[in-house]
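INTERNAL TRANSFER SHEET
From: sequence group
To: structure group
Subject: Hydroxyacid dehydrogenase

Please process the attached sequence and return the structure record in the designated field. Keep the field labels unchanged so the import script can parse them.
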Amino acid sequence: MVTGAKLVEEAENLLSAKGCATIYVDGYAGPEALRDAARTHCVDAILVRQGKIDRSVIEASDRLKVIAKHGSGVDNIDLAAAGDRSIPVLRALSANAQSVAELALTLTLSLLKDVTVLDRAVKSGSWPKTSYVGRDIAGTSFGVIGYGDIGRRAASLARALGMSALAFDPGAAAADDGIERVETLDALLERADVISLHCPLTERTRDLIGARELTLMGPASFLVNTARGGLIDETALQHALANGHIAGAALDSFSQEPPAPDHHLFGLDNLIATPHVGGASRSALRNMAVQSATNILTFLEHGTFDSAAQAKPSLAGMSINA
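Return from structure group:
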């Protein structure tokens, strides 16, 4: 069972070559629909693209043996319920890392250069050429929260553009890579011009950026989130943006997806919103689908898997790197 859109052809061919019948279910249809589909089709595996895979879904099929995530974030999968049945949950490690990092930098540049603000002004009949004063990218400080594969790539891209890069992640190993490590979250928030989130959503990181943290950032700073919506207190963010406590924000994910059309953030001119597409480049979609399908087939055929790919409840919250 695949929860979400159709897989790339290469992944479908891998599955069909091994005699796997694939059924597609709308990932946003809710756990009840996913549960009913899993039970009706007695599924052996679930490939998760979207949607909440809760205990009821995991327990719906007695034949379920493995769950694979089309990506790396597993906050939408009940790891404890899977563990109770000894069902491994396998991630597509680094499959979309470059794509997500590139979107983080794209959103950063759009904020720093006021791309959407100027676009709206020109299209509405204004021509603010004589009054506009822009920002320099070179010399701007780019701070990443979560220094896993995505965070490292985003920091490297920022440095290539002449930005200085800072990183906060208490669980990341030290490395001589030219990226300054910051000891506390507060220090990063106070020093960086742009804060970019690259950590998983756990009980430790939920609402990591709230009213206090936004105040520490300052009125000239920007917030970029290409990770998980629950990392940010959206009510606090709306207040900070509306009152000039920070200069702007760009969100590729929201606490509820899809968000309501009248979401309280959407009326703000200093917000950029994209529909959780950081990992939707051609190469990333191919990599995630093929790796997920391969993870499933390897386990179904041989009962083995790459231990590095396994998501474990006991590790949740120990580190903030993605």
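Handover comment: Residues 131 and 199 are 38 Å apart (CA to CA). The longest strand covers residues 141-145.
Transfer complete.
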